[in-house]
């Protein structure tokens, strides 16, 4: 048997080793007193999503409180997106050196609500959205150079012709394929 002290009346009592971590009170009477004290200490808060009344212990009160996991999931998906998100990095991310800007209302934004910066720059310059068959081409081939002087709107076919012809394509030298150059052919 292990000797312990009751949290309520501070009397000594004995308990079996298997009940050591569970037992905190010497009797049922002391346990009832402790439960009534805890009930009085509970606070009233409202669910951050559905605004239902929740009764919690003060140590469990956070800046956001939820009545269930469904309310928490809805809140996080709606309220914690964009600049309110914990992972917000200023609305800029990169995809293979191409800068993406947060534009949730843009018609060509991806599922994460981001759009390529050079699309936004060209659309602002044109004063309209790009059509589905239009592509923004970087004249010098540097995708990080998004100045308006370096951008050109082309159709998909014209854009493919430029790159297949050899301009800005590392497989071509002076308009001829490197393989032909190495073999000595014209």
Verbal overview:
Residues about 180-185 have low confidence and may be disordered. The longest helix has 14 residues, at about 30-40. The protein has helices at about 30-40, 70-80, 115-125, 155-165, 180-185, and strands at about 1-5, 10-15, 45, 55, 90-95, 100, 115, 135-140, 150-155, 170-175, 175. A hairpin with a 6-residue loop joins strand 1 (about 1-5) and strand 2 (about 10-15). With about 190 residues, the chain is α+β, with helices and mostly antiparallel strands. A three-stranded antiparallel sheet has the order 5-6-7. Strands 1-2 form a two-stranded antiparallel ribbon.
List its traits:
3-stranded antiparallel sheet; disordered C terminus; alpha+beta; 2 domains; two-stranded antiparallel sheet; about 190 residues; 5 helices
Walk me through the topology:
Elements: E1 2-5, E2 12-15, H1 28-41, E3 43-46, E4 53-56, H2 69-79, E5 92-95, E6 98-102, E7 114-116, H3 117-126, E8 134-138, E9 151-155, H4 156-165, E10 172-173, E11 176-177, H5 178-183
Antiparallel strand pairs: 1-2, 3-4, 5-6, 6-7, 8-9, 10-11
Largest sheet: 3 strands, antiparallel
Fraction of residues in helices?
Answer: 25-40%
**Neighbour order of strands in the largest sheet:** 5-6-7
H/E topology pattern:
EEHEEHEEEHEEHEEH
Overall mean confidence score, pLDDT: 81
Low-confidence stretches: 180-186
Structural class: alpha+beta
Report Rg.
33 Å
**How much of the polypeptide forms β-strand, as a percent range?**
15-25%
The counted number of beta strands is 11
Shape call: rod-shaped
What is the straight-line distance between the termini? 98 Å
Q: What is the total domain count?
A: 2
Tally of helical runs: 5
